[in-house]
Design goal:
By secondary structure, the chain is mostly helical. 63% of the residues lie in helices and 6% in strands.
């Protein structure tokens, strides 16, 4: 029984070594062709990705241009856009009265060591 197991293990090792042997010239040529094909396909994929990214950048630029046209804006004398006006003006929570109350309670003027002298 032990001899049978040893023979089986030896036979299995020989089969594994044979299957992992060196490649023939034909197999090497096939492998190099498949590598060249994969390189070409990688270059094509890279070009496709670049094209998609360029299209997305163009689409984003066009949508930004449309947004600029739709929103009100202010220009200087030369016609250059200075800033875009917000659609909803910012307000203090609670209105102007709450803002005045907050400033009155929290605004602290620095104390000067010397009294202010009027200019000469």
């Amino acid at each position: 029984m032990r001899n049978t197991v040893n023979i089986f293990v030896l036979l299995l090792t020989v089969v594994i070594i044979q299957s992992c042997g060196t490649k023939t010239n034909e197999q090497q040529a096939e492998a190099s062709q498949s590598t060249e094909e994969s390189t070409i396909s990688l270059n094509e994929k890279h070009a496709q990705i670049e094209a998609k990214q360029a299209a997305l950048r163009e689409e984003k630029r066009n949508s930004y241009q449309a947004l600029i046209i739709e929103t009100p804006f202010y220009t200087n004398e030369a016609g250059i856009i200075v800033y875009n006006k917000a659609e909803v003006a910012p307000t203090y929570v609670g209105g102007n009265e709450a803002m005045k109350k907050y400033l009155a309670n929290n605004l602290v003027y620095p104390l000067c060591q010397e009294p202010l002298k009027p200019p000469l």
